[in-house]
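A reminder from the course coordinator: this example appears on the midterm review sheet, so study it carefully.

Given structure:
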């Protein structure tokens, strides 16, 4: 029997009450068991609002009832995961960061890394960031050896990422000459990464909240528009592990609405450019 007070079907629990808190806490446990995602590490208010609004479509009054729906319906579970993970991205998102990468970071990394760049697109969504990086490196350092690890918690989006296909809208801020040189126009509309880009990017299913990358194993880490959904504690923890994964002289690029909250010297970082940090030690 449920410990929650009973509500008529379709009458959602009043938010902010002890019953709603317990209902959400139970749902967090359920989702952790069912798919391994730990919602406690994400900002509670916006996550709860998003999940309850999504569950409402099914006419359920509680998340406990919604958990039963998820147990029985894999399609509903996938649809919810899509809603939770927020896969918004685009090629060359925040163009000024790509100018910086092309003009400063990549040439510097090629020099200090003896012609090799090991990069990580952490929270890569459908791959736009990883392929934008591959195209940028091919453009400014065509002989560099480039290996891009791209990872995300969302398995369905990773399947799409591997195809390297983008709509014209995904490419709306991409420099036209880079599109022409490194992507193939798809019949009708859109672009596909060319073979050379496809071969440079390797996708992995990975939870950033749990992964422990080897220290010093990357020259460049991009983690943009991912930790904004995490609690402050989870965000700091992820930033610390990503910083530790860089070799001295490597760069850490964050989203252009973000900041690293903890003291930089604790992470061995210094500010290199706006939203770009350099690993010092
Ligand atoms: C808004 S997209 C950002 C994509 C890209 N970095 C960009 O800036 O365009 C956020 C991505 O983070 C992923 N994500 C959320 N939580 C994650 C986690 N715990 N581990 C790995 N990826 C996660 C989501 O699945 C989603 O694809």
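Designed residues:
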């Amino acid at each position: 029997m449920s410990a929650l007070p009973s509500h008529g079907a379709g009458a959602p629990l009043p938010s902010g009450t002890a019953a709603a808190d317990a209902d959400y806490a139970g749902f967090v446990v359920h989702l952790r068991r069912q798919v391994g995602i730990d919602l406690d590490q994400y900002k509670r208010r916006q996550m709860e609002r998003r999940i309850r609004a999504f569950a409402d479509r099914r006419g359920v009054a509680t998340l406990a009832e919604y958990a039963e729906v998820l147990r029985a319906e894999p399609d509903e579970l996938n649809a919810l995961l899509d809603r939770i993970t927020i896969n918004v991205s685009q090629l060359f998102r925040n163009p000024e960061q790509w100018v910086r990468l092309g003009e400063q970071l990549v040439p510097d990394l090629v020099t200090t890394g003896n012609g090799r760049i090991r990069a990580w697109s952490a929270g890569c969504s459908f791959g736009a960031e990883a392929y934008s990086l591959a195209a940028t490196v091919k453009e400014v350092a065509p002989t560099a050896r480039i290996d891009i690890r791209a990872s995300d918690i969302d398995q369905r989006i990773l399947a799409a990422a591997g195809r390297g296909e983008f709509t014209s809208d995904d490419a709306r801020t991409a420099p036209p000459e880079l599109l022409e040189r490194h992507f193939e126009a798809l019949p009708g509309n859109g672009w596909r990464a060319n073979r050379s880009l496809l071969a440079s990017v390797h996708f992995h299913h990975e939870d950033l909240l749990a992964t422990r990358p080897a220290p010093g194993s990357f020259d460049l880490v991009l983690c943009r528009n991912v930790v904004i959904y995490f609690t402050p504690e989870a965000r700091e923890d992820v930033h610390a592990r990503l910083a530790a994964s860089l070799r001295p002289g490597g760069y850490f690029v964050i989203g252009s609405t973000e900041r690293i909250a903890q003291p930089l010297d604790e992470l061995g970082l210094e500010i290199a450019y706006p939203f770009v940090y350099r690993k010092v030690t």
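The pocket of S-adenosylmethionine is lined by residues 85-89, 93, 123-125, 128-129, 152-154, 157, 207-209, 224-226, 255 (CB under 6 Å). Strands lie at 116-122, 145-152, 165-166, 183-185, 191-193, 201-205, 218-223, 246-254, 269-273, 276-279.
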